[in-house]
Amino acid sequence: MVNNYDLALSFLYRTRLRSHLALLDRYGSAEEAWRHLDEPSMREAWTRAQQEAEWIEKHNIRVWTTADDDYPYRLRQCPDRPAVLYSKGNVHPSEGHVVSIVGTRRPTPRGEELTDALVRGLHERLESLTIVSGGAYGIDIAAHRAAIRYGVPTIIIPAHGLDRIYPYAHRKDAVAALANGGLLTEFPSGTEPMAPYFVQRNRIVAGLADAVVVVESREKGGSLITARMAGDYSRDLFAFPGRPSDLSSMGCNRLIASQKAQLIDTADDLIAAMGWKTRTSAATPVQTKIIGLMDDLSDRQQAILAKLQEAEDGMHINLLVMELEIPYSDVSSDLVMLEIQGLVRALPGGIYRFVQ
Q1: 12-68, pLDDT tens digit by residue?
Q2: What is the pTM of this model?
Q3: Which of 287, 240, 293, 289 is nearest to 267 (CA)?
Q4: HSE on the CB side for 261, CA within 13 Å?
Q5: Strand 262-263 relative to strand 236-239: parallel, antiparallel, unpaired?
Q6: All structural domains of the chain
Q7: What are phi and psi of 239, to 5 degrees?
Q8: Which residues, at least 6 apart from 223, have a Cβ–Cβ distance to it below 8 Å?
Q9: At what angle do helices 222-232 and 250-257 cross, to 10 degrees?
Q10: 132 pairs with which residues across the strands?
């Protein structure tokens, strides 16, 4: 049940988090702290807390406070942890291995492929995994989509309240995450996505994780702020390297060169660095999934997959049409279905690649 005192304190100390946490440490509970306060805005904060409590109950929102035994234990270690968290969906941030994946909002096709391969590789080798990111354009949403594609729990950390989704283009992804993961934020309903809130939420992305991975980052950007926070929280930080001439990899290369992040090329590198125990079964979940799906594919779809498996760098749709002697419209519709099933990936310029 929602404690109105916790909510009221969070509204009263909205911009004074450390004071809020200090009060909780001093008095032991939000209710006891409230009884010792005498501030002019307390009535307004209490009214707002009552309104929020009604909204929470109506929309089936879960509230986490630092007084709860199941408050995310990794986040509890952070000195600037949120005093109150709101979640929707099937969120279990303390279970298994948690990896936060961040990066540029303008990724290259390589960056998106690295993200997909990382999530898939971790899922294949680890018994329990949760992927965390901020739900933004670029690497963030690529990480969430990969997790959804492979059935991995994923937690979206928005920079606003749970009464909206930003960007709206990712609404379907947020809905898809609710069944196996969901949304987690420190911002109450009515909070709009403002620039300072994106930086503020990055500490949750970093604090929730065992490891933080930067896939691609320019010389400056929000992912580097998350990387710095990961260092502040003593989280293991990793980055994918890129060519010195690649603008999208300049941030990653500098993190590696300054020894702030460990270089990785694959999921295996991350697992080895973390010392995590891997699955022992011969057949991985993704391999089993692909084998099962193959049985349900049409002969034409299987022929398309066979061609794509032979092409390491992918094939243009026009070349598939020519080599298979199948009408363009049929190949196009089959590729869409294969992409939905996670068996192929569409690349810029009409290129399609088999998902290894």
Answers
A1: 988 788 889 999 999 988 999 999 998 889 999 999 999 999 999 999 999 999 989
A2: 0.79
A3: 240
A4: 31
A5: parallel
A6: 1-58 (no CATH), 97-274 (3.40.50.450), 285-354 (1.10.10.10)
A7: -150, 145
A8: 102, 103, 104, 139, 214, 217, 251
A9: 20
A10: 100, 155
